[in-house]
Write a structure and sequence with these properties.
Layout: H1 9-20, H2 23-30, H3 48-65, E1 69-71, E2 82-86, H4 94-106, E3 113-117, H5 127-134, E4 137-138, H6 141-149, E5 153-156, H7 161-164, H8 180-187, E6 192-198, E7 206-210, E8 220-223, E9 234-237, H9 243-246, H10 255-279
Parallel strand pairs: 1-9, 2-5, 2-6, 3-4, 3-5
Antiparallel strand pairs: 6-9, 7-8
Helix pairs in contact: 1-3, 3-4, 8-10
């Protein structure tokens, strides 16, 4: 009889992660639906074992370091295509990771959100594969359209690197708000959920940038702290904006209508930011 092959390192990590997850997290992960393409992965590279690993090793940041407080997760659609449109900040993209965990933890029924990565991220060695296995997708229109057509929940940062790269004295000032998310929402009949993250702006106070284009990264941030500060994150989800009920599919090709729809989403995110800033008692509380 042939010997039983030893589990791979990835399989051992996944088994250990699942075994160590608290029941509330394990139940959410076990309840996730995904489209198995026949070899354990979905067509865009997601694998549920990697979700378990990501949650197990990042939840210490979510629960203990950034101590995330979540508001309005019931606004996340229970099924079907949808886009979370969030502000972006903090020099390093911990905000995306915390939204990712927060959606898994608090959505009902449980859903995994697929962050749409900037153009340079899929080219990064090692981490790009991990991101894809956890559910992130490259930001090509083909990938995004396919994900929406099959009913996925996407996370898009319309500010892009301009949001995450702004200096600390411009904190919570939304940068140029790209329109691609609303064009996709209108074309694919998907609601847009505005999301505000408060706390990330102060995690790594940024005072400048070095124009070093290493591995396609547009710059290196100059920050005042060698490590992220243990600020408290506040993640707030607003009511879904049903652009698809007010715009026809063909309106996705009308620049003025798309611009107006994007301005509506931006204003909703700004209102959520203002709400969270007014309520919080300090950056660490």
């Amino acid at each position: 009889m042939a010997p039983t092959p030893s589990p791979t390192l990835a399989a051992r990590l996944a088994a250990r992660a699942r075994a160590n997850l608290p029941e509330v997290w394990r139940a959410q992960i076990d309840g996730l639906a995904y489209d198995d393409a026949g070899h354990g992965f979905d067509p865009l590279g997601l694998h549920p074992d990697t979700i378990a690993v990501a949650v197990q090793y990042f939840r210490v940041l979510y629960e203990r370091y950034f101590r995330v407080r979540s508001y309005g997760a019931d606004n996340i659609p229970a099924s079907g295509p949808a886009i979370l449109a969030s502000n972006h900040s903090g020099a390093l993209p911990f905000d995306g990771a915390m939204i990712y965990l927060d959606v898994i933890r608090n959505s009902s029924p449980p859903r995994v959100v697929r962050p749409v990565m900037d153009h340079f991220v899929p080219g990064l060695p090692f981490v790009s594969t991990f991101f894809a296995r956890a559910g992130a997708i490259g930001g090509s229109r083909g990938n995004v359209r396919y994900a929406l057509e099959k009913g996925d929940l996407l996370l898009i940062f319309p500010e892009g690197t301009e949001g995450i790269g702004k200096p600390i004295w411009e904190r919570y000032q939304l940068q140029e708000w790209r329109v691609g998310h609303v064009e996709l929402a209108i074309r694919h009949r998907a609601p847009v959920v505005p999301v505000a993250v408060v706390g990330a702006e102060e995690q790594l106070p940024q005072v400048g940038q070095l124009n070093v284009h290493l591995l396609g990264i547009p710059y290196l941030p100059l920050v005042l702290s060698p490590l992220p500060l243990p600020v408290r994150y506040h993640i707030r989800y607003g009511a879904p904006i049903a652009l698809h009920e007010r715009y026809a599919v063909d309106d996705a090709d009308d620049p003025e209508k798309v611009k107006a729809a994007a301005a509506e989403v931006k204003a909703a995110v700004a209102d959520l930011i203002a709400h969270s800033l007014a309520e919080r008692e300090g950056i660490f509380r």
